[in-house]
Structures are given as structure tokens and as C-alpha cells.
Amino acid sequence: MKKRAIIYPYNQLAAQFVRYREHLNDFEIAEAVSPPGLSMGGYDAGIADEGIGTGLTVTENFEEALQTCDTVIVSEYPIPQDSMFLGKILENLLFAMKKGKNIHCILSLPDSTVAFLQAQAKHYHIRFTYQGENNIFPGLPFSEEEITTPIVTIIGMSENCSKFETELALYSRLRKKGYRVSLIGSRNGCELFGQYSFPKFMYEPLLEEEKIDRLHSYITYLEKKDNPDVIVLGIPGALLPTDKKHKNHYCILPTEVACAAPSDYTILTVLADQANERNYHMMEKMLLYRYRSSLDAVVISNTRFNQDGLVNNSQAEVGYDILPPKWRELDIRAEDLRHLPFYRVYSPEEMDAMEERMEDSLESNYQNQGLA
């Protein structure tokens, strides 16, 4: 039986866990609790990312919501440095512990904070699960075995362009059709779905060759463990730097992943202001010549660059705007894009069409290889 949980602090990064909560392994989300400053209380939880409705209403009353649950899922949240907000989160978590509530944390925290919460959990005799504990590579030797399961790769032209939403949308549709799916997601928290977050060793100070070997071995390990029909692989980060100041870690990660696990079907996600034919053909060539991959589909996000921050170059980090439905319908899906494989992430019908096209393509490849 699933445990009743609340998700806190609810925000844009937590929306996908509510939207696809039917696939959570151990939890039934009873409440989404947002910080009062976000003004989401009383609205459908889909307001957090201006996406598809979820059927769950947001509340701002943490203590009241706590009475409805067994567990608090602590979601990712863009906490500014030197912010007092982290202190408020910890205050609420300690209150929940005193009330006997378990904590499942996917918010990245300093080691000292994790150690403190673990000690408090032991004191109050409750269970504290930290997301880092669920994402440990088993340490198997390098495998030279070929990956035989089809890999569907989701990669972003930029950061914050709905990669994770696309991964879960595809995962959900394949699961509902009865396929066995292994998801390696681009964000923390995939373990809540019984799946896998992108492995931490890819961010460690290792030689590039070792990272590639480890990732290849990891995927062959999951292939044997899960016996999936398809692997959905989300790559964190971006294919291109934003500008000279924001280099996106020199976009090295996609190259490492492409070497470790060649893609059978590649889905590119783009910001709303990147959805044009020029970018499509540019990325088509880049994927072909740099990664030996075709560009099979493009998913349009409902976010775009914050132009003021880019023009003024005044932000330490790149800002993004979420486009509300009325605005984004004006300039997306123009006539000159209709002959290209563009799909809007916030349109269930178009995401259905994308999944069906992917399914047909993989089946065709399978038959052409003489394996049918």
C-alpha cells in the first residue's frame, strides 16, 4: 500500500512529480505545499510551470497539510546563496520529524545539513531518506558488451527547456502501453518512480575515458537487471553554451554520453524562442557530425530566455521566463514549422503523436535489422 505524502516546497521543479504521480512507486501525493511568497495557494498545481493541469490544488499551510500524510517529500528548489529560506525549510522539517513524519529528500543539501537531519531523524525515530543514497553505481567491472536495447535520448539545446517533463511524458505513455521501460532521468528524484537519476559519477573528477566506460557498464547492468523493451535516457545540461559568460560546462556531458550509449532515437528539447527552421537544420547537422545521431523529434518548451538578463549580461545565472498559454500560442507552431517534427510539451495530443512516431520508427528499425 502506498504511503500518503506531501511535497514541499512546491515549485516549478516539483510539478512533474505531481503531474505523473500515478507512477510513483511508494507514495500517494495528498498535498502540494508551496511557500506563501509564490502565491500559488488555491490554484491547480499545474500553475507552477504553466503546464497541463494536475487535478491537485496547491496549499500554503504546511502544518495543516502535515496532518494528511505519513511522509514529507522535500523537492528541489532554486534556493539563492546566503538565503534564509533554507533555514525555513529546515525548521519545517524538524517540526515534521517531531510529529513523527518520515522525510524523503531529493533537494541537494550540504553534507553538514544532511548529517544534522540524519541525527535528528535518529533522535525522533523516523526515517530520513536522502536522494544521494539512492544513486550509487554498483561498482561493476567495465563491460565491453554491446547495448542491445533501443535507447531513446532526450537532450536539450539549452538548460531549462523541459527535458525532464519530456522524459516523464514519454515514460508514462510507454508504461501505459505495457512496455517495460528503464528511465535514466536528467534530474534528481527518479528513484521515486522506481527508476534512476543520472549517475553522480559523471560529475566526479575522473578521466573522461573512465566516465564513458562507467556509464556504458552502468547501462549494460541496468539492461540485464530490468530487461527493458526500451531505455529512456535524459542528458542533463545543454548542447550549446548560452553565451561567452554562460558556457554550460563547455557542453562536454553530451559527448561523453554519446560515446557510452549511442542513441537509436534522439529527441531535442528547445526553448520557445529557439523553435525555428534555422535552429532545426543547425542542430540536425550538429547531431549527425558530432554525435553520429539523427534528429528525430523536437519538443518545444513553454520557457524562453529572460532577454533583459541576456542583453544586460547582469545575472550570475541565466534567467528564464515561463510563458502562459495565451502568450505562447501567438508565436509558436507557425506555418513554416508544420513540415518539421516539432511538438509542444504542453499539448497532450502532440506528445501522443510524438510517442507514436517514435514507436513506429523503432519498430521499423527493428524490422530492417532482420530481427522481427
Layout of SSEs?
Layout: E1 3-8, H1 15-19, E2 27-33, E3 58-59, H2 62-66, E4 71-74, H3 85-98, E5 102-105, H4 111-124, E6 128-130, E7 151-156, H5 163-176, E8 181-185, E9 196-197, H6 208-226, E10 230-234, H7 253-260, E11 265-270, H8 277-291, E12 297-300, E13 303-305, H9 307-312, E14 320-322, H10 325-331, E15 342-344, H11 348-368
Parallel strand pairs: 1-2, 1-4, 2-3, 4-5, 5-6, 7-10, 7-11, 8-9, 8-10, 11-12, 12-15
Antiparallel strand pairs: 13-14
Q: Note the quaternary state here.
A: single chain
Number of strands: 15
Q: Which strand-content bin applies to the residues? A: 15-25%
SSE order: EHEEHEHEHEEHEEHEHEHEEHEHEH
Q: Nearest-angstrom radius of gyration? A: 21 Å
What is the tally of helical segments?
Answer: 11
Mean pLDDT: 89
Categorize the overall geometry: globular
Distance from N terminus to C terminus (CA atoms, Å) equals 39 Å
Q: Order of strands side by side in the largest beta sheet?
A: 9-8-10-7-11-12-15
Which structural class is indicated by helix and strand composition? alpha/beta
Largest sheet: 7 strands, parallel
What is the share of helical residues?
Answer: 25-40%
Unreliable stretches (pLDDT < 50, length at least 5) are none
